[in-house]
Design brief:
globular; alpha+beta; L,D-transpeptidase catalytic domain-like; 16 helices; four-stranded antiparallel beta sheet; eleven-stranded mixed beta sheet; 17 strands; 494 residues
Length: 494
């Protein structure tokens, strides 16, 4: 007989338990308890699944209602504006629907301030679409209808996005024609603006979107003066140059603390508490290897830094020289290292058929009097691997034109800069000298607040003095500004 183990039903086991035939410590009773516990788990799982399903259905219903509400808002907006084009239709519909389609620009001063600042942004020629938004608001100004308020909001959302993102996007937006494209402002920024409107702080909010850099304000004054005189074809280039450079200045804070490098001036200035404690000539990137416009923060000073040659430099500079003379590696203190850390003899490499893309090694230059980085490297986080450093080729600082590097910034007074920064980090001058003599690579973290600004400004006004510099990277080339209605701008910047 083929015996099979038959599992009793839970009902049967339950009856046995109820009748007292099963004891708590019997295998059957243990099985019953296990089965009952399993059912409880299943019940809980079912309950959990039901809760999840309910949550999903609730969210789906909320999304459906939100979509329906948004469609109603956009329909209501269309009734007010007709076919007038807007940049932010869904957002504007939502904003005005939540405000019962009441006007937002009831503060006349806030309105005037915004149009003034927006017109000066348009004058820089960074966005054709912004110029069109300003013109649209101007055409309908004074009619008292809600559409005027809506057009102002459409233009303002453009300006709000620009003002809050221009610093991080300066290299892209302020150095090529019509490269700025408006995006949806951050929800927190929109909420802050609407709160300011509600609390009668509209004017202060608009003013805070500008910059308190004194050079920015003074340069804008010159732009306004040029617009007021009337724009002639032969004057447009000058106006555009000052207008775009003013926008480049707006991303800079007042010159209070930090390291500021104006790329076309070939100059570094270190400010502490509003005082220029160090000014130095610098060497910046050549036109084909431009020093980027960027903001960072000084993290550490490296004394006796080694140099790891970047791929581009290996390909364009070093390999062609080594092909002619492999001893170039030894004479310049380079070491060729493979992926396992082994040193490779340069005479064993087929340099004729070698490129940087095929170069399977690291090329490192040890600290020395001839090191490419000199005695000091000033590190700062950068996606482009850009930093400040010393150089052994000090004769190049005598050149009037100093766009000669591969992108990083060489500092003539690097020793003085290092002395100041290392002192702030707790180093004595004796310690600095001892580390230098040892040729041992040593890093010192910078504890003080030292932002670093690499910027590009060729035209500005400082205390009624007009300053201009050669446009070494060609960023100031005359733009096509035919889409700008200068009479509209004149109306708002007077």
């Amino acid at each position: 007989m083929n015996r099979k183990c038959v599992k009793p039903s839970l009902f049967f086991l339950g009856m046995l338990s109820y009748s007292g035939l099963l004891q708590a410590d019997t295998p059957a009773m243990v099985g019953l308890q296990f089965a009952q516990n399993s059912l409880m788990v299943l019940d809980k799982n079912d309950a959990g699944l039901a809760t999840q399903q309910l949550a999903l259905e609730t969210r789906a219903e909320e999304a459906r209602l939100a979509e329906e509400k948004q469609q109603q808002a956009e329909q209501a907006l269309a009734e007010h504006i007709g076919e007038t084009p807007l940049q932010f239709i869904p957002l504007i519909a939502k904003i005005y629907a939540e405000n019962n389609f009441a006007p937002l620009w009831t503060d006349v001063q806030a309105k005037q301030q915004f149009l003034h600042d927006y017109a000066l942004m348009v004058a820089a020629g960074i966005s054709k679409r912004s110029a069109e938004a300003l013109n649209a608001a101007h055409r309908i100004a004074g009619n008292g209808a809600l559409i005027e308020d809506i057009l102002l909001t459409d233009a303002f959302l453009d300006y709000l996005y620009y003002a809050n993102n221009v610093q991080r996007s300066a290299q892209k937006w302020l150095y090529s024609e019509n490269s700025y494209k408006a995006g949806k402002p951050d929800e927190n920024q929109i909420a802050a603006w609407l709160s300011a409107v509600k609390n009668n702080d509209h004017l202060a909010f608009v003013k805070n979107l500008s910059s308190d850099n004194p050079l920015f304000q003074q340069t804008l004054d010159r732009v306004k003066a040029l617009i007021a005189k009337g724009v002639e074809k032969n004057k447009t280039t000058e106006l555009h140059r000052f207008a775009i450079n003013a926008q480049r200045l707006r991303i800079l804070p007042a010159f209070e603390n930090g390291i500021f490098v104006n790329i076309p001036s070939y100059q570094l200035t270190y400010y502490r508490n509003g005082e220029a404690v160090l000014t130095s000539r610098v060497i910046v990137g050549k036109p084909e290897r431009k020093t980027p416009v960027m903001f960072s923060r000084l993290s550490n000073v490296v004394v006796n830094p080694p140099w790891n040659a970047p791929t581009r430099l290996i390909n364009e500079d070093i390999i062609p020289k080594v092909r002619k003379d492999p001893s170039y590696i030894y004479r310049n203190g380079y070491t060729i290292i493979d992926s396992k850390g082994n040193t490779i003899d340069p005479y064993t490499i087929d340099w004729e058929n070698m490129t940087a893309n095929k170069f399977p090694y690291h090329l490192r230059q040890a600290p020395s009097d001839n090191s490419a980085l000199g005695n000091y490297k000033f590190n700062m986080p950068s996606s482009d691997a850009i930093y400040l450093h010393d150089t052994p080729k000090r004769n190049l600082f005598a050149n009037k034109k100093r766009d000669l590097s591969s992108g990083c910034v060489r500092v003539e007074k690097s020793d003085q800069l290092a002395t100041i920064l290392l002192k702030e980090a707790g180093w004595s001058d004796e310690r600095k000298q001892n580390v230098l003599k040892s040729r041992k690579t040593t890093s010192a973290s910078i504890k003080s607040d030292n932002p670093v600004f690499l910027y590009y400004v060729t035209a500005w006004v400082d205390k009624d003095q007009v300053h201009t510099l050669p446009d070494i990277y060609g960023y100031d080339k005359a733009a096509n500004l035919s889409y700008i209605d200068w009479n509209v701008l004149k109306h708002y910047v007077q």
